[in-house]
């Protein structure tokens, strides 16, 4: 349990965590749609399309972490891959994009696959 002194040293503001989560969700939804466009244009089908989505989403999370969270974590002396200061938990950060953007990915994937192959 955190004490008052811990909150003074490293304050965690709920509004900031909610804002960060919303920003990450918007970013992952946008990139999922863009990955759907890419998969549709490339003509990917079945498992290869879903594998493309999973790999590209995880790569996006790694790039987001490397560009946004890692520099500030290193500067503050936090452990690597510790996202608890900015998000509700590590699980939310690393896996929320897989389920949150899946519908947008499938929608744009089938749309552009049909447009290109028709």
From TrEMBL:
It is found in: Endoplasmic reticulum membrane. It is a multi-pass membrane protein. Keywords: Endoplasmic reticulum, Membrane, Transmembrane, Transmembrane helix. One of its GO terms (cellular component) is EMC complex. It holds the Pfam family EMC6. The chain crosses the membrane at residues 24-44, 50-70, 91-116. One of its GO terms (biological process) is protein folding in endoplasmic reticulum. It comes from the Eukaryota. Belongs to the EMC6 family. This is ER membrane protein complex subunit 6. It comes from Coniochaeta ligniaria NRRL 30616.
